[in-house]
Amino acid sequence: MDMTDSPAVIKQDEVEGLLLYKDLIPRLEVAMGKFSKRNSDELIQPVRTVIPLQKYNGFLGLMPAYMVHEDVLCTKMVCFYKRESGSTLPSTQATVLVFDPEYGNLKAVINGDVITAKRTAAVSAISAKLLMPGQSEVLAILGAGHQAVSHYQVFTETFSFREVRVWSPRRETAAKFASSVDGAVSVCDSVEEAVRGADVIVTVTRATEPVLLGKWVKPGAHVAAVGACRPDWRELDDDLMREAVVYVDSREGATAESGDIILSGAEVFAELGEVLNGNKPAHRKKTTVFKSLGMGVQDAVSAKLVFDQWEQQRKL
Ligand SMILES: NC(=O)C1=CN([C@@H]2O[C@H](COP(=O)(O)OP(=O)(O)OC[C@H]3O[C@@H](n4cnc5c(N)ncnc54)[C@H](O)[C@@H]3O)[C@@H](O)[C@H]2O)C=CC1
Ligand SMILES: O=C([O-])C1=[NH+]CCC1
């Protein structure tokens, strides 16, 4: 592409076809490992800048990242909102801008919604691969929106669960989710019913108060906690946060943004990247929480995959 060309515009349905979990997961593992080395000759990714949109109960997150050897420079811009439980408006909307790092020109504008859905779910699947108990049979998903769908897809593609359960504050939302996916899903009337005896619990809700209580969680279970991305928002209670071994994507991100970590006073044991690098153990036999906040480098990896394939297809 010439640097005077207009940027490519890559739409949601194109991203959907180009971003596959089998390609994404190994690349995310490498990127998170690199991130945890904190070597600015390899990767630069600050904690996201967040601007409150008070009037609309929302936030704009700016998430730049530069991967030096891969020569990927990009930033995601994501708006996310505190929505009423019954609202049908999306919780997040995102766009990814890809730049030529040598000249600074904009190469692509990529719809960020599929990237956000898939990379977040893929990272949760990586956490489960490392931390869930051996012989995990039951998966519980709390929340039934966009992230629930992508998490269902990657978790059922990557692992073999005997049973999948879903809960949402409105039963009809959970029922709609269950009938929209390929495969059997039990719709539960309460969080307790959904998570009792579950080996893996994914929390993908808009909750701002705890919905998952430690007393319901089976000892040794793994929780991938994806919602509650503000310092005063919660999905998990203090009991769970204090009893579990807590893993995060980025220590700085978690310390700045996670209400579950900040307000419970829980200690962060490790970043997933440290486990992937072999520098921290994966406590599979203990109850574990992976607190996900999302990182710019995860979007950078995804945007590169999408853009490289998009360019290849254009040359054919
Ligand atoms: N960690 C990360 O990297 C990312 C985190 N997120 C967060 O993940 C969460 C889910 O995102 P989406 O699936 O896109 O949202 P969504 O709006 O599509 O779905 C959210 C679901 O949460 C449930 N819900 C709604 N209000 C609730 C309440 N008060 N208590 C409990 N459950 C409630 C409903 O089942 C609803 O369908 C959001 O909190 C979002 O901010 C989103 C993107 C990336
Ligand atoms: O990483 C991400 O895109 C987000 N994290 C929380 C809301 C959106």
UniProtKB/TrEMBL annotation:
- Gene Ontology biological process terms, A to Z: thyroid hormone metabolic process
The UniProt entry, under Gene3D superfamilies, shows: NAD(P)-binding Rossmann-like Domain (3.40.50.720), ornithine cyclodeaminase, domain 1 (3.30.1780.10)
Which reaction does this chain catalyze? L-proline + NAD(+) = 1-pyrroline-2-carboxylate + NADH + H(+); L-pipecolate + NADP(+) = Delta(1)-piperideine-2-carboxylate + NADPH + H(+); L-proline + NADP(+) = 1-pyrroline-2-carboxylate + NADPH + H(+); (R)-lanthionine ketimine + NADPH + 2 H(+) = (3R,5R)-1,4-thiomorpholine-3,5-dicarboxylate + NADP(+)
> SUPFAM superfamilies, from UniProt?
NAD(P)-binding Rossmann-fold domains
**Which Gene Ontology molecular function entries are recorded, alphabetically?**
pyrroline-2-carboxylate reductase activity; thiomorpholine-carboxylate dehydrogenase activity; thyroid hormone binding
Of the GO CC terms on this record, one is: cytoplasm
Which Enzyme Commission numbers does its entry carry?
1.5.1.1, 1.5.1.25
InterPro entries to which the protein is assigned, alphabetical? NAD(P)-bd_dom_sf, ODC_Mu_crystall, ODC_N
Q: Tell me, how does this one assemble?
A: Homodimer. Binds the thyroid hormone triiodothyronine (T3); T3 binding inhibits enzymatic activity.
The entry's family comment says: Belongs to the ornithine cyclodeaminase/mu-crystallin family.
Provide the protein name: Ketimine reductase mu-crystallin
Q: Which species does this protein come from?
A: Osmerus mordax (Rainbow smelt)
Q: What is the lineage of its organism?
A: Eukaryota, Metazoa, Chordata, Craniata, Vertebrata
